Structure formats: C-alpha cells, structure tokens
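tool_call: predict_structure(chain=1)
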Amino acid sequence: MTQEFDRARLIAALAAGDIHADDETIDSVDAWLFTLWFQYRMRKKNFQVGRAKPSKELQKINQALLEWYSCEEFKWEVYLLSRFDHLKIAAMEWFGCTVGEAIDRLEFERKRHGRENPKTTLFVQLYNGYVDLSGRTGLTDEGDGHGPGPGVRFITECAALIDVSVPDKLRQLIQTSIAREEKRNEAACKNPE
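tool_result:
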C-alpha cells in the first residue's frame, strides 16, 4: 500500500518552509509523509510500537530464518526458491534482515518510558523533518510579516496533507515536547538501566 500526496500541495508545503522543491526532494518528502501518516494512524488506533512485544509468530519466523541461514542447504535452497533471479535473492535477504530489525526495534522501543499524544509525536517528527530539509532550527509564531515563520508554515502545510488539525499553540507544544524528551534522555544517561 502506498499513498501519493498531491504534488502541488507538496510543493506548497516545501515553499511554505522556504525549502527548494526539486524532484528528488519532492519524492523524498512524499515517501516520508506517507511513513508519518502510517505511524500516526497506528498510534491513533493505540498500536504503540513501544508498548507492543514482538509477536510469537514474528519471533518464530526470525528464529527459523536464523536457523535456515546457518544450515548447509541454505544456499542451494535460496537458489531453488529464487530460480537464480538476483532481485528475488535480494528480496529474501532484505526480508530476513527486516524481520530481525523489526524485533530489535520493538524490543528497544519497549524500554523507552512515557507515552505522548499521537498528534504531538507527529508534530515533533514534522519539525525534525523541517530541520533536516532546511538546515534551520527554531520555530517562530511571527515570520516575515506574513504570519508564522517558515517552520510553523511547513509543519502546518504537511499536517494538512495528512488531514491532521494543528493546534493554536503549535510552537509551544513542539518546544515542550522536545524539552521533555531531552530531560528523559539526560536522566537515561545518568541512570542507565
């Protein structure tokens, strides 16, 4: 399942953040927003990566793949399954790695503390994306005489693309969340489990 956002609206979101909108950036932001949209939907449905254990079925698949990779027949069976198609071999390798990475991520996220509102998490992720794309940090409620600054405009436009309403105090919400996360990280560094 993939979703493509309206290209003109993507360009408008980038322009709102004073970010150059070349084809590569537009495609990258489209894929990134789809990921954020998917994560947001899962959080809204109360599926929290940090709250879920890897399922027994996923753990069994991972264990079976690990055992299969280490057996003598592995290479022969890989070629049999793939019919010597390099794309299929790469897909099988990707799947094996991804299963293990998913389990690791689920386990790691369970160790993190605190649970934030899905919208707040989304807005912080959009802010971090703005910083990555623009190279600028900080949010302002007052921009160049045309309302909020580019960071707030970018976040607002991106949120509209994925049908999420933006609160009046967006800047304060993001700054508070970032400060809270920094405190948690400092505490974790001082008292590792």
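agent: The two ends are 38 Å apart (CA to CA). Proceeding to next step.
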